[in-house]
Fold this protein.
Amino acid sequence: LRNLLYEMTIKCYILSVILSCCLQLAWPVNPGFRTAITEKGFEYIVQVGLPILEAQLNNLKIPDIKGDSDGVHYEFTNIHIGTFKIPKASITTGAGGLTVSASGISLSVSGAHWHYKTWVVSDSGSADVSVSSTNLKVTVKIGRDTRGHATLSSSGCQCHIGNLNIHFHGGASWLYNLLEGLIIGTLEDSLSGQVCKQAVEAINTQGNKAINSLPVQVNIDKTALIDYSIVKNPVFNAQYMETEHKGEFLSRTKPHEATISPVALPPVGSPVRMLYIWLTTYIANTAGIVYEEAGELKTQITPDEVPSSIPIKLNTNSFKALIPGLYNKYPSMNMTLLLNATTPPVLTVDPKGANVTVFGDVDVCVYDSKNGNKITPAFNLSVIVYTNATLSVKEEGNMPYIIGKANFIGAKFSLKYSSIGSFDAQLLQDAVNFLCEGFVVKELNKYGAAGLQIPLVDGVQLVNPEIKFGNDYIMIDTDINYKPSVRVKVMSEEFEIAF
């Protein structure tokens, strides 16, 4: 019985370990930040993108059409689009992804060269082509790979050629024009197939390659980088497309996962603006971890750094009345302050606003003139600095940044160590307040002023962004201005249409 119980215990333990691992693997990862582009946003992109696309396609050269059929070699070359119009287009979101639809497409081609050759005869000339009332619908899926890159794939394409007319010139054109009706049906089917083939290949190959080239990790400085990888497949519904990203700062030299986790964000809800961006406190707090572990959150204050307008100088003479023991042991000696964060700063956010708390030590030292001006510790203060933060969005180099400014609220401190005897540390309240506001908060604001770049597609600018505060996150709702820098490229390889 004892052996049986022991065996059951071991099996239960192993089962619990396996179950625990499975639960950890299946447990959803909360994003550090999230974006949602709405139907209104897509409508705007189509509105501004259509004229640009039409301008790019006008005078565009189409790859030559060459082929062989039943002993006839044919060529259709020098194909340049004279005019290209897309009167109506839309991007809709749904459970399957994005659907790009265009209707009423028309184009014209003039001066194209045609040529055919058999073993007996050959002929050549020019041709004019017009296409109208054409509809195109392409469905695009957006996912993620194992590295957190976004992926694109086309899950379907439909192209219907409404009207197609060809008029031949030169050679025996009078005969070919009589036979136009016999070949238009075949040409329409072949052309619609080629349009979809080119569209699908462009999405699956060039589009996927381009989106995969977007970095998932961006270097911030010599110390830190930020991980923008996608943590799960984008979510689509009738109102928006949602993407969730890791949003974690990592060390560039010794990267490791943070011991903290992002909060769960609330549902998107019913959006009314074009774009929504959620940034959790996880982003700033992992930045604090990285910089604190790298030893970046420390500084030294010397006598010449104290403004002349401040009555308290870094000399023991200024503290003769407050701390007699300091003056008695080190009379008329210059002082220096060594400030060091003992734990990473913490950003907290609630619906009322944002706050930053800094935890650190202040080593108060003297330049001991009796000992060759050696820096000698006198006492140490443990300090907690409280600030609130104002956040705003700025544009720099056509890229949006969220920047922060800390405002000093107050400080708590206690005497941690003293080599000059005991004294009432609270007498230093004014001096500590000055130190915190003039140096600690100033140093904090250097990081806040540098800002955090909001990762957006090239060409997207935020219009009238508004910041709203939630529990451990901020949300930016905004409209957008879109100036795409995309250049239309047509694949150079020849393609075949069989009659």
